Amino acid sequence: MKRRDEVLVGILMTITLVIGILGALWLARGGLSAGYPLHTRFAWGAGLKQGGPVLLAGVSVGYVDDVQLRNDGYLDVTFRVENRYRIPEGSVATVVPVGIFGDVAVALTPARVTEQHYQPGDTIPTGASPPGLTELVARMDTIGRSMSDVTQAIEFQLVQEGGLADLRSTIALTNQLVMRLNTIAAEQARELSATTAALRRTASAIDSAAVDSTMRALQASSQNLARMFEELTTTTETLTSIVAKVDTGAGNLGRLVN
To answer: What is the reported pTM?
Structure first.
C-alpha cells in the first residue's frame, strides 16, 4: 500500500511538472490571446527563437510564432500580435538584444503616427538592426589591436629609432636657451638701472636757483615788451587821429594842406 502511494505521488508530481512547463511555454507564446499573424524576413545569424518577444515601441505586443530557414541566406519569420494592438503602416522590423544572455526580440519601430495599420498576413519590411553583443566584442577586439599597433609604433620610434634620445637632447638645448635668455634679461636690467641712475644724477645736477633767475628775467622781458607794444599802439592811434584831421581840413595845418 505504501509502495503504491509513493508511485501515485511520483506520477502526480511528474504530471504537475509537465503541465507547469507546457503552461509556461503556452503563456510565453501568447496564452489565450492567439492574435493575428504578420511576416518579415531577416538574414541568417539573427538569433531568433520560437516564442521570442515582439516589441512595439518598447512594449511587448506578441511573440515569434515560427522561424523558417531558407537556402538563400534569409529567415522567414512569422510572429503574432495581440488583437488589441495595431501595427502602424511604415513600421520596420529589427532584431534587438534583450538581456545579457544573448536573447533577442523582434522590435517594431513606427516611422510616424498614422491611423493606417498593417492587416493580418502582411509582410513588414526590415530595417538596420543595432549591433549585438558579438559585434560589440569584435569591435572592441579591433580597437584593442589598433591600440596595440599604435603602442608598438610609438615604442619603435622612441626606443629603437632613437627618438627618446633626441627628445632628451631637445629638452637639454631648451634648458640652455632659457638660461641664456635669463642671463641676457639680467644684463639688460642692470643696464637699465644704470641709465636711470645717470638720468637722476643729471637732473639733480641742474641748479634750480639759476633756473628761477632765468625764468624771472624772461618774465621781466615779456612785461617790457608788452608795455612797448602798448606805447606803440597809443602813438599809432594818435598819428592816425592827426592824419584824419588833416584830411578833413580841420585847423590851420589842414586848411594849408588842402
So the answer is: 0.42
